[in-house]
Amino acid sequence: MNLSSDDLPMFFEPDHVRLAERLRDVARDLEELERASASDGAIVGAIAGLFDLVAPASGKVDARAVCLARE
Alpha carbon of 62 to those of 40, 49, 53, 55, 56: distances in Å? Predict the structure, then answer.
């Protein structure tokens, strides 16, 4: 999976590169769950950790992180 952090590294910080790896892991997990015809609960569980990108506890949203997650 190619993300904008790969193509446009000048716009991203090291935290974004780590996030991109995390997103790739989640994408692989979701593909495996889909192949296994997993329940909706299992799929929601796989992506639940990414919700902090949209509504972080700090209240500060990182637009670049949200864009990476959206990709």
Answer: 28, 15, 7, 10, 9
Check residue 46 and give its pLDDT: 84
Q: How far, in Å, CA of 67 to CA of 53, rounded?
A: 10
Are 66 and 59 a contacting pair, CB within 8 Å?
A: no
If one counts every other C-beta atom within 10 angstroms of the C-beta of residue 5, the result is 22
Please give the single-letter amino acid code of residue 46. A
To 5 degrees, how large is the angle CA 23–CA 27–CA 28?
A: 120
Total-model pTM:
0.80
User: How many angstroms separate the most distant Cα atoms in the chain?
Assistant: 39
Segments in the chain below pLDDT 70: none
C-beta separation of 12 from 5 below 8 A = yes
